Amino acid sequence: MSSQSARSSQFMRWMTAASLAIFSFAIPATAQSNNGDYTFLLASGFLCDPGDSSTCPAAVKAANGDSYEMSGAGTFKTQSKSVTAAGTFTHRSSNGNVLETGVWIATDPVSFDSYGVAPNALLQKGTAFGPPPFGPKRLPMPSGPMPTGGLAVFRVRFFPMRGESTTAVLQANCALGNVPHERSVEGIRLTLEKNGTDFSLEVSGRVMFLAMRPEVRAPAKTPQDATPDSVEPPKN
User: What mean pLDDT do residues 184-213 have?
Assistant: First the structure.
């Protein structure tokens, strides 16, 4: 392996770890926030099964046979219309040759159409979400986040290892909950903004959204409501 290839491989591994770190630290940071907050995985983390190539990465093809492969993670808020997400990508030609590879970041949220929560989604999928150390029974998830289906649309920017950055519109579909028939296929779609090329044939990849529940606090007691146990009632 050449030194350039070694550096590229090391860089991609670092960026994959960095993008997954967004997911790892996002849950405790947002699990107690308002409704409309979501964490999501795009063909990464516990969604991946080493024995099943259809889980990761998420791949999509254009009419000419070119394809994009993507993985990543992040958070978004529907009320404030903000998103923090990143990951890696590979652009391949119709014969499978790598045309470019690099990292992507989400720049703007466009829309999110929820299909509703799916409380038993992790258990129903079983080991399809990863090997035993990361499977649903051992997944260190707080009680708040709830698996949710939906279609999220983001504007993203691709930063290839060589060449100029490009922008695109990314659609990520999670087929859980009350899924419309026309959106029953899980995966991604992509539209490049520079030339309008559509990548609309979903090939593989899992997507999951986790709805963050708001913090529920017990009402604070007022001084008149508080009656210490140690205080005896007055005697007649």
Answer: 94
